[in-house]
Amino acid sequence: MNKDVFEGKWKEMRGQVKEWWGKLTDDDLERVGGKADQLIGVLQQKYGYTKEHAEEEFNRRLESAKLD
User: Fold this and answer.
1) What is the model's pTM?
2) Which structural domain range is residue 9 located in?
């Protein structure tokens, strides 16, 4: 799955994203609104990740996501 697919399936992915990163609040998820770059930024803020680490973590999770 790539970032475009992620954005298109945001409503389906939202719960899974919250499971993956439990520090994210509903407000955070509303603000992200399915935008991959914004999610990466929030991961940096909430978890103290570098941009590279946040992108790697995001990509790793997307690759493992099972959406039909």
Assistant:
1) 0.86
2) 3-64
